[in-house]
């Protein structure tokens, strides 16, 4: 049997370590196991580790496992086995897209049965996933168009063979530590067996309810291309940094929120390589009320529009590709279009965007520096600046200018960056008020913006 990769996501370090040891001897030879303590770390690990199967807990910091799975399945069809000590989560997990649900034992993993059961379910999940993908490919390759007068066949679901029957580990497994989960999910409502978790409706500034329709096939291919580019850059960065000590993020508990000297009226974010995933991670976590957000991501023209459309359907904030003359509104995110420079015009009470073709700055159009300098000039200490993963130095000087004008400035730390170029340049020239991991960025943005 071929070696596989398994990602274990659980907030208990003890549980991660014990389960890893149990599984590694039960999976095919040369298989690999990696772990994450919460969903945002898991998202980064999915990109860097590229697992074949994920084992997911439910109650965790930042975001519960059910909501993480719901959001993940929109972009990655990753076979997932959900573990929880509460059977009430079974139906929720399966409805969210889990291959199967296993109830955690009420005691420690001293017995080998639990490890055997999880390993067997992992292999079954992978086999089912591969079989579904193979049969889908065969249908595509050999399907014939319907005869005249016949209806088009109904579209097949993304994962046609995902099992919907739960599996419960025998109660005789092990003795010792109790693994528990609270009865609440992200919605704050109590969860009973059979209840289906639904995310709250998302309403834009015009009062229109946003739908969860899947993005177009073209957008899906664009997302796939972004994912492949990110993986390539991670591999290049890993080779370049081989032999030196791996950077470690500062624990979130040790990070203090900067206090702005004035109420924040605008948030400006800049990113490049790896930024589409970083931005997605941040924006999908932010919730209203927030001031308007303007974003420059180094990205080609068509990609910027599709990226904005995908985020609009996935986020609780409203997202659009910016156009010249846009008046900035709270709870809206404006993505700079590829091949156009985006600047801020007007002031706090009448913020308008200037979006037009222009010369490349720092080799980029749009340029983060162009946006940041305009924000510094127009907003002063009423802005919050954020610089994320990316190659080069674009945005560093503009962020420094923002800080000199009294703005709070945040930078992504080295450990969580795909490429620690732009944040490094900004940090080393003193442009960053606070440096922090990607997993803490959304929380910090919210804290500062609402101070």
* Strand element count: 16
* Structure classification: alpha/beta
Share of residues in strands: 15-25%
In spatial order, strands of the major sheet run: 10-11-9-8-14-15-16
Helicity, in percent?
25-40%
Shape, per Cα inertia axes: elongated
Q: What is the CATH C level class of the largest domain, in words?
A: Alpha Beta
Low-confidence sequence ranges: 152-216
The overall average pLDDT, rounded, is 78
How many individual helices? 12
Termini, distance in Å? 55 Å
Provide the CATH superfamily of the largest domain.
Methylesterase CheB, C-terminal domain
Second CATH tier, the architecture of the largest domain: 3-Layer(aba) Sandwich
What is the H-and-E element order? EHEHEHEHEHEEHEHEHEEEEHEHEHEH
How many discrete structural domains?
2
Main sheet makeup: 7 strands, parallel
Task: Give the CATH topology of the largest domain.
Answer: Rossmann fold
- Mind telling me the C-alpha Rg? 23 Å
Question: Can you tell me about this structure?
Answer:
With 451 residues, this protein is of the alpha/beta class. It has two domains: 5-144 and 152-200, Rossmann fold, CATH 3.40.50.2300; 217-449, Rossmann fold, CATH 3.40.50.180. 35% of the residues lie in helices and 15% in strands. The protein is built from twelve helices and 16 strands. It has helices at 13-24, 39-49, 65-75, 90-96, 113-142, 217-240, 275-283, 301-314, 368-379, 396-404, 422-428, 438-449, and strands at residues 5-9, 32-36, 53-56, 80-84, 100-103, 202-203, 209-210, 266-271, 293-297, 318-321, 332-335, 341-345, 352-356, 383-387, 408-412, 434-436. The strands form four sheets. It has a seven-stranded parallel beta sheet, sandwiched between helices. It has a five-stranded parallel beta sheet with strand order 2-1-3-4-5, sandwiched between helices. Strand 3 (53-56), helix 3 and strand 4 form a beta-alpha-beta unit. Helix 6 (217-240) crosses helix 8 (301-314) and helix 10 packs parallel to helix 11. Residues 152-216 have low confidence and may be disordered.
